[in-house]
Write a structure and sequence with these properties.
There is one protein chain. The protein contains 13 helices and ten strands. With 314 residues, it is of the alpha/beta class.
Length: 314
């Protein structure tokens, strides 16, 4: 029996799967995120090694038939990030790529098209034949528009602005306080210590407050959705015709109204499709979809049923 490995890593978590050619999942493992922009290349590199070592025992010969690793920020840190993992796993057949390629494949298979990734961070990738284009995603200090981090940061900022008298009264203050277990003005050390993934975890307060009719949350929602939608016009210049665009990542999966807002504000040439599969599914099919006779639909059916099981949803 041949087993394969798929790894998807962003700012919040690294998800590793061992599975067979039919889509049956042998094991799912979750470890901390490997985005070098957050933790530095050395720590991220060590986390990649740890994630792979933790599943080594599941392969009959100590290594997978093939492995595909989708890694946020790999385009910026490739040598520093991958130097040590490539040495440790030199006998493994691994493709190391950014996280966009697998997300495109997760919905479009081998076809051309793009993807907006919206999780802890955000960016846009477009594929045309063998050519890839990337826009956005320059890190949270400069550009991670519309992301979970930006939504969470805006929620925290609105709460603090209410407290110190500079902003409007907003339900976000109560929701943020509830999530923190304390008032935000008394939690500044904890907020800064938590870092980007922790701040991104407050994104849900924006959607909850907006759903309750909060004007401040609605403004945050609209501003961030528009920032993501702006990227779709870059795709117009790349394709110069109608193109398919996958909306992927944890924020889009959890909050379909956000994907719909991006669709309504975006390029009329972009046919947007909200991904209903996890990003790691794209990494999984990257190992197999170029094989003769591979049936992506049959694989997806088995994979998603098993994925629900290993995630504890059945």
């Amino acid at each position: 029996m041949s087993y394969y490995l798929a790894l998807d890593s962003g700012g919040t978590k690294t998800e590793t799967l061992v599975y067979d050619a039919d889509g049956h999942i042998i094991v799912r493992d979750i470890t901390p995120g490997c985005n070098a922009m957050d933790v530095g290349a050395e720590v991220a590199s060590s986390r990649i090694i740890d994630a792979l070592e933790r599943v080594r025992k599941y392969f009959p010969e100590g290594r997978p038939e093939r492995a595909f690793c989708g890694l946020a920020s790999v385009n910026y840190y490739r040598d520093r990030l991958l130097g040590r993992p490539k040495e440790v796993f030199s006998d493994w057949n691994i493709v190391w790529e950014d996280d966009g390629r697998g997300m495109i494949s997760s919905v479009l298979g081998r076809g051309d098209g793009g993807c907006i990734v919206c999780g802890t961070g955000s960016s846009m990738f477009c594929r045309r034949g063998g050519e890839m284009m990337h826009t956005g995603g320059w890190g949270y200090l400069m550009d991670t528009v519309g992301s979970g981090f930006m939504l969470g940061r805006d929620a925290l900022r609105a709460s603090l602005r209410q407290f110190d008298g500079r902003g409007e009264k907003t339900l976000l203050y109560e929701l943020v306080s509830e999530k923190l277990g304390a008032r935000p003005e008394n939690s500044i050390p904890e907020i800064y210590a938590g870092g980007r993934p922790f701040i991104a975890s407050f994104a849900g307060t924006v959607f909850a407050a907006r759903g309750a009719g909060d004007a401040v949350a609605s403004e945050i929602f609209d501003h961030n959705a528009k920032a993501l939608a702006d990227m779709t016009f870059v795709g117009e210049r790349f394709y110069r015709e109608r193109y398919r665009l996958v909306l992927s990542g944890g924020i889009f999966r959890s909050f379909p109204e956000y994907a719909e807002a991006v669709r309504s504000m975006g390029s009329p040439l972009a046919d947007m499709i909200r991904a209903e599969v996890p990003p790691v599914f794209g990494c999984a099919i990257e190992n197999l979809m170029y094989d003769a006779g591979f049936d992506i639909d049959a694989f997806r059916e088995v994979f998603m049923k098993d994925y629900a099981r290993v995630c504890g949803k059945q």
